């Protein structure tokens, strides 16, 4: 017998014992159990408390130890076996200190731990998925213990009391059995197998069952949790035979799928697009078929890429069991691009979503008829047709009027005196010479040499050309030396004034968001290289030649308009003005050009005028040639110097006005206005009556066009006012008063002010 109050226990190992512990310390009872079982027992310092353990009759040592485990379990403690001894620890820490690990193929070992010991058991499953059993077994395990899944080996790792693990092992053995499945191949007569399988998956997955879907020849994916095992079904599509392969867990489920397929496998309704193979032809009114086809293909591809990754019609498998089918497919067929878009519920669709059946569509353009050939199911075609109707609309046009105004005023003044004289007597062998000589036109030395050559007949009279005398007034004094007149004094006075007023108004009409270019000028050749070839060795003949490159020189306008919603027009403008410099036309290296370029992006109101930019230039130059010291003498110094002053002023402005033309009425009105303007200009230049040249008394003239039809009666006042407002006069016909006033503090400058020098403020 074992008594709690005894100082030393009087029991022997292996003998039956009668337990009578009342309010005994747990540590004391553990020492008694160590004596009874012959095993070492260690008590964790955190284990504190008393036990009541009483038996009416003698029991075996194992039964006494089992009752000890039950009493500890009621106190929140347990015993774990590790390293050949028993450890009494808190139940919450038992799973971390348990040393016993057992592996089984579905059943608890017969000779494993018993009673209330904490052990770890690994169950390897043969048929059932370990993840599917976790929700079933989790409520059967103690709250402080664990159950985990190892997907790699399809195994369960459970830590719990040994007696509870024995019960769980029986449950696992009953569930881990081979399925009794039915397999059937259902051929389709009218529907397409690859299109029906995703639909069946969605329907079967939404009623609480689990469905597994794969493509033809692919492997089935794992079942989706959420449905009972009796409703499990695997559906595959075989595109070669256009059949559906079904494997169900029970005959009832298979019959349900077979009946559903029979209802869906029906011929298309008369008159529907499916009756003609889902091929549609859309004739476009305004858009370009080839460009619109590319846009639609890109939209479909973006919708496919925007969805979540999942199943495809070919090449991959996927699973569905929660009422959702994921993914979309795309491929190329023939000359078109095959894409797929996810369709929404009830036949509607939205790009970028993937919550429904994935279907494909082919879009091909026919440039000859400007039409689109679309092969797609009705839901996808309706969506594409809605997009086509919005894109195939009349595009607005923009008339861009540019006005390049250049006002130039040049002024030059020149004054100079040249003289030459001799020192000595007639007949002397040595005679001295003195005088002034300045470079430029009208040089006194050049004139004397040319006159002597003409007198002797070596150069002829042609040697005395008008270019040898400068422009302006030339006053000279000649001396007679031996019958020969020699120019001894030459005075020159010149004032040169030049004005220029250039107005260029290029106009161009283009579509919204389309770039247009107009070039008015000449195609000028420029020398790019010179080469010399010898015809034969030793012949001495040379064949020189040169290469040239032609470039456009003149007025060029390149513009791309963009009409905004608020009535403004955004313009990307490149305006270029280039000219060949007259002074460089005969240069050996080729002519030079002056270039003025404006490249900018602007925003302007419809019909508004804007200044792109300009150049305000005021240049002054002075050149003086004189004899040192003598040229600085007041008044008298004019006989020893030559002076020239120049002042050039250039005002260059570039104006631009866009006018939006929304409809044919605005286009016709604009054309009639320009037609009448050019016809009026032709009437001005008609030849007048002539007595001798009367045989040619008329120039070609445009005929008068009939009046445009009146606008429709249903046109509202607001629309009529807007249409009339769009009929603005040409930019070149605007007067000074009709243009915008200059900015505050600014001044308007004309050619007279430029000549008189009153516009100095423009140069600031």
Notes on the protein architecture:
Among the domains are: 2-92, Ribosomal Protein S8, Chain: A, domain 1; 100-175, Ribosomal Protein S8, Chain: A, domain 1 (2-Layer Sandwich), CATH 3.30.1370.120; 182-264, Ribosomal Protein S8, Chain: A, domain 1 (2-Layer Sandwich), CATH 3.30.1370; 284-309 and 329-391, no CATH class; 411-494, no CATH class. The protein is α+β, with helices and mostly antiparallel strands and 764 residues long. The strands form 7 sheets. Strands 21, 22, 23, 24, 25, 30 and 31 form a 7-stranded antiparallel β-sheet that branches. α1 (26-37) packs antiparallel against α2 (61-74). The chain is built from 13 helices and 31 strands.
Please outline what is shown here.
It contains 13 helices and 31 strands. It is an alpha+beta fold.
Question: What is the fold's blueprint, element by element?
Answer:
Layout: E1 2-3, E2 19-25, H1 26-37, E3 41-43, E4 50-54, H2 61-74, E5 77-82, E6 85-90, H3 94-97, E7 101-104, E8 118-124, H4 130-137, E9 146-150, E10 155-161, H5 162-175, E11 182-187, H6 193-205, E12 211-214, E13 233-238, E14 243-248, H7 251-264, E15 279-283, H8 289-306, E16 318-320, E17 331-333, E18 336-342, E19 358-366, E20 371-375, H9 378-391, E21 397-423, E22 432-435, H10 444-456, E23 473-481, E24 484-504, E25 507-511, E26 516-534, E27 542-563, E28 568-580, E29 593-605, E30 610-626, E31 641-661, H11 664-684, H12 717-726, H13 751-756
Helix pairs in contact: 1-2
């Amino acid at each position: 017998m074992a008594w709690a109050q005894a100082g030393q226990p009087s029991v022997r190992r292996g003998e039956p014992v009668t337990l009578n512990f009342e309010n005994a310390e747990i540590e004391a009872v553990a020492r008694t159990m160590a004596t009874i079982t012959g095993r070492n027992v260690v008590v964790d310092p955190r284990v504190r408390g008393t036990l009541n353990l009483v038996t009416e009759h003698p029991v075996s040592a194992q039964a006494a130890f089992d009752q000890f485990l039950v009493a500890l379990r009621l106190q929140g403690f347990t015993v774990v076996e590790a390293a050949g001894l028993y450890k009494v620890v808190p139940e919450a820490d038992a799973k971390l200190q348990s040393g016993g690990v057992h592996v089984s193929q579905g059943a608890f070992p017969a000779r494993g731990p018993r009673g209330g010991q904490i052990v770890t058991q690994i169950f390897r499953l043969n048929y059932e998925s370990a993840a599917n059993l976790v929700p079933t077994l989790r409520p059967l395990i103690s709250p402080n213990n664990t159950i985990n899944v190892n997907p790699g080996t399809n195994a369960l790792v459970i830590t719990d009391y040994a007696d509870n693990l024995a019960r769980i092992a029986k449950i696992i053995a009953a569930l881990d059995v081979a399925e009794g499945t039915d397999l059937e191949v259902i051929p389709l007569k009218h529907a397409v197998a690859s299109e029906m399988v995703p639909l069946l998956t969605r329907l079967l997955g939404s009623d609480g069952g689990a469905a597994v879907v794969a493509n033809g020849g692919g492997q089935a994916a794992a079942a989706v949790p959420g449905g009972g095992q009796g409703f499990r079904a695997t559906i595959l599509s075989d595109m070669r035979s256009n059949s559906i392969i079904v494997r169900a867990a029970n005959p009832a489920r298979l019959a349900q799928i077979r009946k559903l397929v029979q209802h869906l496998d029906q011929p298309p309704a008369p008159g529907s697009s499916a009756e003609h193979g889902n091929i549609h032809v859309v004739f476009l009114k305004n858009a370009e078929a080839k460009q619109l086809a590319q846009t639609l293909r890109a939209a479909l591809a973006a919708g496919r890429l925007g969805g979540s990754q999942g199943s495809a019609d070919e090449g991959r498998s996927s699973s569905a069991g929660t009422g959702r089918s994921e993914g979309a497919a795309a491929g190329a067929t023939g000359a078109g691009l095959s894409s797929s878009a996810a369709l929404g519920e009830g036949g509607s669709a939205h790009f970028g979503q993937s919550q429904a059946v994935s279907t494909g569509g082919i879009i091909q353009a026919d440039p000859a008829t400007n039409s689109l050939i679309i092969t797609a199911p009705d839901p996808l075609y309706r969506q594409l047709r809605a997009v086509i109707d919005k894109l195939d609309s009349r595009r607005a046009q923009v008339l861009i009027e540019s006005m390049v105004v250049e006002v130039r005023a040049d002024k030059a003044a020149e004054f100079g005196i040249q003289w030459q004289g001799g020192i000595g007597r007639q007949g002397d062998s040595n005679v001295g010479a003195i005088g002034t000589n300045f470079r430029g036109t009208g040089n006194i030395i050049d004139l004397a040499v040319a006159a002597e050559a003409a007198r002797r007949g070596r150069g002829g009279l042609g040697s005395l050309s008008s270019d040898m005398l400068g422009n302006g007034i030339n006053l000279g004094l000649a001396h007679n030396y031996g019958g020969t007149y020699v120019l001894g004094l030459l005075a020159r006075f010149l004032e040169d004034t030049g004005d220029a007023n250039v107005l260029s108004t290029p106009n161009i009409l283009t579509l919204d968001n389309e770039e247009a270019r107009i070039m008015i000028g000449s195609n000028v050749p420029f020398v790019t290289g010179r080469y010399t070839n010898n015809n034969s060795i030793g012949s001495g003949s040379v064949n020189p030649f040169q290469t040239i490159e032609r470039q456009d020189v003149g007025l060029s306008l390149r513009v791309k308009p963009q009409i905004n919603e608020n009535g403004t027009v955004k313009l990307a403008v490149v305006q270029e003005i280039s000219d060949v410099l007259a002074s460089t036309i005969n240069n050996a290296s080729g002519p030079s050009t002056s270039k003025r370029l404006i490249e900018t992006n602007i925003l302007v109101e419809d019909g508004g005028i804007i200044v792109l930019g300009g150049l305000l230039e005021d240049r002054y130059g002075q050149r003086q040639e004189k004899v040192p010291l003598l040229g600085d003498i007041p008044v008298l110094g004019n006989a020893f110097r030559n002076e020239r002053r120049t002042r050039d002023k250039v005002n260059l402005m570039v104006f631009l006005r866009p006018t939006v033309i929304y409809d044919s009425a605005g286009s016709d009105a604009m054309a009639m206005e320009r037609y009448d303007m050019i016809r009026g200009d032709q009437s001005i230049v008609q030849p007048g009556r002539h007595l001798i040249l009367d045989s040619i008394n008329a120039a070609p003239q445009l005929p008068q066009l009939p009046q445009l039809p009146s606008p429709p009666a249903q046109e509202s006042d607001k629309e009529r006012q807007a249409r009339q407002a769009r009929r603005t006069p040409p930019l070149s016909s605007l007067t000074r008063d009709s243009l915008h006033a200059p900015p505050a503090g600014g001044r308007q400058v004309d050619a007279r002010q430029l000549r008189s020098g009153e516009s100095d403020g423009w140069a600031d």
